[in-house]
Design brief:
The protein has 16 helices and 17 strands. The protein has 443 residues and is an alpha/beta fold. It folds into two domains: 9-159, Rossmann fold (3-Layer(aba) Sandwich); 182-430, Aldolase class I (TIM Barrel, Alpha-Beta Barrel), CATH 3.20.20. Strands 3-1-4-5-6-7-8 form a seven-stranded mixed sheet, with helices on both faces. A six-stranded parallel sheet has the order 10-13-14-15-16-17. The protein has a two-stranded antiparallel ribbon with strand order 2-9. The protein binds iron/sulfur cluster (SF4).
Length: 443
């Protein structure tokens, strides 16, 4: 594109296989909000709204119809190959198109996107550098003055260091894509949720997690009143706080709940919490329920102290059990997230199911241990991880060869976990008792 041409921005969220959720593209909505503020034409091409068929052709059509000259990819660990391959195809079909890659995976693994077809990789904390680039122009001079980007100069990639961690957003998200895509928005058996983010990164350092690497590894919190304002403004009654751990500072949770009650906001909330927090702070849970919290997602991860230590989870089996009980006692649904280790034995699979039944966990989510690039675990396992297509890096595929059974048997047992737990979720939801935390039976 020429220097004088006005930017016309298309933001792309690449689709990947998911049968459990279709969510709002919140990250891109922040970029769309920024473009709106700068008065730049901008649209979100959310591939989750479309079928897999004619995927590339549909994208090309969108670029042609909207006369877009700038495309921004939102990168996740499982879309690296798709993004680099699509960027290469687009550069051939639209030689003047400016290609930027940003998003969670670019923030941690920016070098993976420094290819011939990409013009800029955005890995900064916050959107200030992007605001400068969009408002001042796509020139080397402007790029050189920014933090947290990679750009080309004289045929070579220049890597600019990240700026300081951020503790807020510089603009509001433009939620047009959410309201437009509401028909297809869902979380398995839970309904449609708007997303909100009230903090950045995570103060813990579990070995398999790269959320903790975000924001230069520094946990920060947004202004609480701003968060409540946002909750009030969203034209939807179910909100999922996608913070890595919303329940971290008890006084902040208390202040949030009190403000929600004071303003008479009637919405239901879902949020992540750690087992140790819920185990140690049952007194905050009645207030959380009163304010509208119903779903708490707890990374229980494992049922043995040994494995929890392996993951550097800094929690224990006992805390997991107390967290489940505290939530159930307060009518809050404990959505137990488990990580299936590649070293799992047949007995481990059996014991996990026993644990789920014994502690009356209805809502469960199973992932397979995956050493994502950028995590502490990756350093340990990277030699065993070579040659994988990025599509497999989604926590539902084997990336490390199971040591106690064949890969086939491991996957069968992994699927069986779902077969033996998910029908009950469906039946209970059908009978309207999915959120009755005291019930133990099927209806
Ligand atoms: S798994 Fe959860 S608690 Fe652990 S580092 Fe990641 S976000 Fe934090």
């Amino acid at each position: 594109m020429s220097k004088k041409e006005k930017l016309r921005i298309l933001l792309l969220r690449p689709k990947y296989s998911s049968i459990v959720a279709n969510l709002e593209p919140l990250g891109l909505e922040y970029l769309a909000g920024l473009a709106k503020e700068l008065n730049l034409p901008c649209a979100i091409h959310d591939e989750f709204q479309y079928s897999w068929i004619l995927r590339y052709e549909r994208l090309c059509r969108a670029i042609r119809i909207g006369r877009f000259n700038f495309i921004g990819f939102n990168a996740n660990a499982n879309t690296v190959d798709y993004i680099n391959e699509t960027a290469a195809r687009l550069k051939k079909d639209f030689p003047k198109l400016f290609v930027m890659v940003g998003g969670p995976d670019a923030e941690v693994n920016y070098a993976d996107y420094c290819t011939d077809a990409v013009d800029l990789v955005y890995h900064d904390n916050g959107l200030m550098s992007l605001k400068n680039i969009w408002s001042r122009g796509l020139t080397e001079e402007v790029f050189a003055a920014q933090s947290g980007i990679c750009y080309k100069s004289g045929g070579r990639w220049v890597v600019k260091e990240k700026g300081a961690p951020v503790c807020g957003f510089i603009n509001k998200p433009d939620r047009t894509a959410f309201y437009k895509g509401l028909k297809k928005n869902f979380i398995f058996m839970k309904g449609k949720y708007a997303l909100s983010k009230a903090s950045f990164s995570c103060p813990y350092s579990c070995a398999f997690c790269y959320c903790t690497k975000m924001n230069s590894g520094e946990y920060t919190e947004r202004n609480l009143m701003e968060v409540v304002d946002e909750v009030e403004e969203i034209r939807h009654d179910k909100i999922w706080f996608v913070d890595d751990t919303f329940f971290f500072d008890k006084e902040r949770v208390r202040a949030f709940c009190n403000e929600i009650l004071k303003r008479g906001i009637k919405k239901t909330f879902m949020a992540y919490a750690r087992a140790d927090f819920i185990a140690a702070n049952p007194d905050i849970l009645p207030l959380a329920y009163k304010a509208g919290f119903r779903d708490i997602l707890v990374g229980l991860e494992a049922i043995s102290d040994e494995l929890l230590d392996d993951y550097n989870k800094q929690t224990s089996r006992d805390e997991n059990i107390r967290a489940i009980r505290n939530l159930q006692d307060n009518n809050l649904v404990c959505n137990g997230l488990f990580v299936i280790d590649y070293k799992a034995t047949r007995e481990d699979f059996r014991k996990l199911l026993d644990f789920i039944h014994e502690y009356n966990l209805l809502w469960v989510i199973f992932g397979i241990f995956t050493p994502y690039k950028g995590t502490d675990a990756y350093e340990q396992y990277k030699d065993q991880m070579k040659g994988f297509r990025s599509e497999l890096l989604d926590g539902t595929h084997i990336t490390l060869k199971p040591t106690n059974m064949s890969s086939f048997e491991f996957m069968m047992r992994y699927y069986m976990l779902h077969v033996l737990t998910y029908p009950k979720i469906m039946v209970r939801t059908l009978f309207g008792t999915g959120y009755d935390t005291k019930k133990t039976g099927w209806i």
